[in-house]
Every structure is written in structure tokens, then in C-alpha cells.
Specification:
Distance between the termini: 57 Å
Bound molecules: zinc ion
Number of strands: 30
Radius of gyration: 25 Å
Structural class: alpha/beta
Strand content: 15-25%
Shape: globular
Largest sheet: 10 strands, mixed
Strand order of the largest sheet: 16-17-15-14-18-10-19-29-13-30
Number of helices: 14
Length: 586
């Protein structure tokens, strides 16, 4: 071929590919192309046609067979979908029991779309229990800083490892969702709890085009799977609101993570044995003081009636667990709980108003006690959720202290698992944040501005935080040579170069036209400088980033953790360990 012909062929190929892609996008099939589906797990199947089509022209096949017969459920043709002037085929509670490759072809007579799914089985059950730790937003810098602060480093060598580091298996995990390279905590946690990717703000569903947030095609959660198929107990422990994305991903199906009222109902329906965290405001009937519900349902009463011991303080929680409690609802705050820096050291944040919040480590201990009383094993998700909540407002000290807290909880789980040898323990983040350790800030360095005191390379030396206390926390963070950690994406804010001892940092506040401007409150901090933002002006704080996160694991089934893994594979590690996809057991 001549050069000109090669170029013409290349151009033609590219144009065809673009046109082909454009045409294919007009039809949408859920689950999406390349979905990996656990044998026997339930999912909703949906085809969205481009415009109103005639049912006579519609043909949907699975490996060449009629789709309803193959998917084991009744399909419904919807001529005009609400809010979308177009037709769809919808089939709820489908499942495929035989592993293998499935090719799904949908046509309306004019347009055709094909997607391919992989249905996978598992071997026999290896683990009695699974404990999944999620450090929300926990990035490399959080982890390294937590190691520096809680284990110390001199002459380049640490004086110990984090509990989450000292695990035999490790992998990098990619976090992107169906719709974007950058994920939020809803669709990233859903990937872990359902094995399906989804879109920003979506929990346990594929995000469809209709405006109703509760009608989207669902995928089964690990909670439902282990209860339905193995009769296991399930625990959900966090220090954010329990309705927040990560804990909600254990049970919820909604396109919109802020559907807090329905999410409380989904927790109730899920019958999880242990549910602990903040977020009581959405459990109270609308007329009760402090309620944020939009109806009169009293979920505290409903949980009590269903046999749950309901507690609201650390003391009540500890008193409840030694008794014959088998089901526990612990709600320790109307909103998000306070982090460890405020609870144990500074008494800032909302600690004065809510002085009896438990520590995540104690929440875990109570959960383990209660869940161990169930004879079929348990799945427990434990989230240190404020690592993320503090990283958004650039408050890295609080985020790192909560990373240490997570690690202390991991240590407790490792002790539990080490004694029994039947428990898979995983530690992972759901996405990263854009923070990095660049050196130290040394007050003793001469310089006109604070930036002159930033020591890089050999001038950084090592920070001089005091040795950690018995719990692994440094008693002081405002030392003379402290870590210099900066964020890559941020709004306008005043860099103060110091820990925020008066309470959690608020870098930016709403200005005119919903644009965020630097918070003037920090303008007069010694040496503060205005850092012009690099994010859109409507961003009040830092954002998630797209880098991989780290997964470490130990126990039966952990040996498959290696190299690079997709976030949906974390689900696969768990269901493999639990033998949830055994054909014979269906
Ligand atoms: Zn976040």
C-alpha cells in the first residue's frame, strides 16, 4: 500500500470506529459491557432504546437465546419510560448460574448493541468470617504519615510497621467507575460490596436515565448474598453517618447517595445484625427534636421492636455487648462523629456537645463480640470515614490521626483473626486524595516567609513529633519541625503551615454567586499566605483523585491479592473466600 492509501485506510477505520461507537451508545444495556457477575447473584437487566420503539421490532438475546428464559425472570416492555421519551426492556431479579462468557444482543430493528459479560463461579468456602476495612480516601501520604507519627522514623528506618502494612498480601487497586475516571465513595464502595462498577453518587445500582432515583437497575450486595445463601451475620461499623455512602453501600440501592431517609429503611430491611456510627437524625420521626427525616416513621422504635439493643453512648455500647445482645444499633451522633484528634486530645469539633462518642477501636471490639455469637460466620465492614471528611478541607493532621485509629482497629482484627485462622481480613481505601509529603516545616529555619522554612531533601531531616503514647498517637502535633504536606487540587485558601488546633479547618467559604473564596478567618494566622485555587470556583474544598489505592490482606482467600486489581475484584476476593459462587450449592 502507498503511504496515501495507508493514511486513507487509517482515517476510514477511525471514522468508522467513531460512527460505530456513536451508534452503539444510542442503546444502553445494564449490566454494562465487560461486567463480571457472580454465578447465582441477582441483578436487574435493562435495555434503554433510543426513542420510542415498537415491541414487535425489539429482540433481546442472551447467547442467542430468548433473554427472559436465559435470565430466569419475567421481562417487561415499557413503551415510554417516565421522564424519558423512549422505550425500555426491564427484567428484575435476574441471575445466571452457569459460569462462562455471555453475549447480550439488543435490537429495535434499526439499531443493535452487543455487550459481553463474564459469569464466574468460586471454589468451596475457605473463610468463616470476612472483615473489610475501608479507609475512606486513604492515600499513600496518609499511610506514610501515619507510620511516621505512630511508629517514628530515624536514620531513614521506621521503628515499626503499621498493622495494615504487616500483612502478607498486597495489591494496587484501580478505582474508576462506569461514568468517570474519578470516583466518589458511593460507586467505589459499591464495587466492593456488589462486584459491579457504577456511576458517581450511585449505590448498588446501574445509573439509568429516568429521574426516579430508586428505580434504577439493582445489583445484589454482599449483605444480601451472605444472608440469603449462607445465613451469615453482617455488621456495618463507621464513624460517619451510617447513611453515608460507604456504609450504605453494604445494603443500599439508589441512584442518589443523599437519599438518607430511604437508606435508613434499606438498613432496616437488610436485617444487618450490627449497625454503628453517626446519623441518628434520620432515624427520628420528623416531629422529634433534631430529626432530619421527612416522615413520621420512628426507626429507633422499629429497630427496638425488631429485637435490636439500641445504644447512643460509648458506655451503653460497652454495657450492651457482654450481655446476650445478638443485634445492636449504635447511633452516637446525629451527624458525623468526631475524629480521634478532637475526641481524645483537643475536645474541639462537636465533642463538647457529644462527649460520649466511642472510639472506632471499641466499636469494632463490640461488633466482633456480638457477631461472633452468630454460628454461621459473619461479614463485617469497618470504615474509618473521616480520613476523607478531613482531607476534603485540607486538614491532613486530623486525617492522619484517623488513619492511625484505623490501624489500631486493624490490629484488633488481626489479633482476632490470628487466634482463629478462619477469618479473611482486608484493608483498602475506596479512592485517593491529592496530598503529598514534600518535607518538613521547620520553625527554626531563617527566612522572611513561611515557605522559606519548608525543608526539602536533606533540609527536611526528620520531624520532631514526640514519641507515640501507649495508643500509638503523638501527644502533640504543633511541634517545631513538622511534616510539610500539601494538596494538589484545592480552592482559594490561606495556607497556615500549622495544625488546626481550634477545630477542623474550613479552607473556603461561599462568596458571591456561589463561588468559593478563601476563608478570611485564617488570614491573620502567623505567616499565612493566600493560595489561589486551581479547581473550579464552585469547589469549596479539595477533591478525590484518580490514583490507585493499596489493598492488603491476610487469612483464607487472601492469597489472590497481588499486582494490579480492579476495584470489583475486591468483591471477588471476598465471595471466593466465602464460596458464594459454588454451582452445586445453589
Ligand atoms: Zn470524599
Amino acid at each position: 500500500m502507498t503511504r496515501a492509501r495507508i493514511r486513507a485506510t487509517v482515517i476510514l477505520t477511525v471514522v468508522c470506529a467513531i460512527l460505530g461507537a456513536a451508534r452503539a451508545d444510542a442503546l444502553t444495556i445494564f449490566p454494562v459491557d465487560r461486567a463480571e457477575i457472580l454465578a447465582g447473584a441477582r441483578f436487574d437487566f435493562k435495555v434503554e432504546f433510543d426513542g420510542v420503539v415498537s415491541p414487535g421490532d425489539v429482540r433481546v438475546t442472551v447467547n442467542g437465546m430468548d433473554h427472559a428464559k436465559m435470565l430466569g425472570a419475567a421481562a417487561r416492555f415499557i413503551e415510554t419510560e417516565p421522564g424519558a421519551n423512549a422505550s425500555a426492556v426491564l427484567l428484575r431479579d435476574a441471575s445466571l448460574s452457569r459460569p462462562g462468557s455471555y453475549s447480550i444482543v439488543a435490537t429495535d430493528g434499526k439499531q443493535t448493541k452487543t455487550v459481553v459479560w463474564e459469569v464466574y463461579s468460586t471454589g468451596p468456602r475457605k473463610a468463616r468470617n470476612v472483615i473489610l476495612f475501608i479507609g475512606d480516601g486513604m492515600s499513600m501520604a496518609h499511610r506514610t504519615a501515619a507510620r511516621i507519627l505512630s511508629k517514628r522514623i530515624t536514620e531513614g528506618r521506621y521503628h515499626g510497621k503499621l498493622a495494615m502494612d504487616a500483612m502478607p498480601y498486597m495489591a494496587l487497586v484501580g478505582t474508576s467507575g462506569v461514568d468517570s475516571v474519578i470516583t466518589d465513595s458511593a460507586n467505589s464502595a459499591s464495587a466492593y460490596t456488589t462486584g459491579h462498577k457504577s456511576s458517581v453518587n450511585a449505590l448498588g445500582v446501574y445509573a439509568d436515565r429516568t429521574p426516579d432515583t430508586l428505580d434504577d437497575p439493582k445489583v445484589e450486595t454482599i449483605t444480601s448474598l451472605v444472608k440469603r445463601r449462607l445465613g451469615m451475620a453482617v455488621g456495618v461499623v463507621t464513624n460517619t453517618e451510617v447513611e453515608d455512602a460507604t456504609p450504605a453501600a453494604m445494603v443500599a440501592h439508589t441512584r442518589r447517595r443523599s437519599d438518607y431517609d430511604p437508606i435508613v429503611g434499606m438498613f432496616y430491611e437488610s436485617k444487618v445484625e450490627v449497625l454503628m456510627g453517626g446519623g441518628s437524625a434520620h432515624f427520628l420521626p420528623q416531629s422529634a427534636p433534631g430529626s432530619r427525616r421527612k416522615d413520621e416513621t420512628d426507626y429507633l422504635a422499629k429497630f427496638r421492636d425488631a429485637g435490636y439493643t439500641v445504644v447512643s453512648t460509648d458506655q451503653e455500647m460497652k454495657a450492651a455487648s457482654p450481655a446476650e445482645t445478638k443485634k445492636l444499633l449504635g447511633l452516637f451522633h446525629p451527624g458525623n462523629m468526631d475524629g480521634v484528634l478532637d475526641r481524645k486530645f483537643l475536645k474541639k469539633g462537636t465533642v463538647e456537645r457529644y462527649p460520649h462518642q466511642p472510639d472506632l477501636v471499641d466499636q469494632l471490639k463490640s461488633a466482633l463480640e456480638i457477631l461472633s455469637r452468630h454460628d454461621k460466620g459473619f461479614v463485617l465492614m469497618v470504615e474509618s470515614g473521616l480520613i476523607d471528611k478531613y482531607s476534603h478541607p485540607l486538614d491532613w493532621e486530623r486525617a492522619v490521626m484517623d488513619t492511625i485509629m484505623l490501624d489500631r482497629a486493624v490490629e484488633v482484627a488481626k489479633e482476632f483473626a490470628g487466634r482463629r485462622r478462619d477469618t479473611l481480613v482486608l484493608v483498602v481505601a475506596d479512592h485517593s486524595h491529592g496530598l503529598s509529603i514534600v518535607g518538613t516545616v521547620d520553625d527554626e529555619t531563617q527566612g522572611e516567609q513561611m515557605r522559606d522554612k519548608v525543608g526539602v531533601y536533606e533540609k527536611a531531616r526528620f520531624p520532631n513529633y514526640p514519641p507515640p503514647n501507649a495508643e500509638g498517637y503523638p501527644e502533640r502535633l504543633d511541634v517545631s519541625r513538622r511534616l510539610a504536606i500539601f494538596f494538589s487540587g484545592h480552592p482559594d485558601y490561606y495556607e497556615t503551615w500549622r495544625p488546626k488546633l481550634d477545630g477542623p479547618f474550613v479552607p473556603a467559604v461561599a462568596g458571591p454567586d456561589k463561588r468559593f473564596i478563601a476563608n478570611e478567618k485564617f488570614k491573620d494566622a502567623p505567616g499565612a499566605v493566600l493560595r489561589p485555587g486551581n479547581l473550579p470556583r464552585d469547589a469549596p474544598q479539595a477533591v478525590h483523585t484518580g490514583e490507585d489505592v493499596v489493598l492488603t490482606g491476610m487469612g483464607p482467600g487472601a492469597e489472590v491479592i497481588k499486582g494490579f486489581m480492579d476495584n470489583t475484584e475486591v468483591f471477588r476476593v471476598m465471595v471466593n473466600a466465602l464460596g458464594l459462587g459454588q454451582e452445586a450449592k445453589r
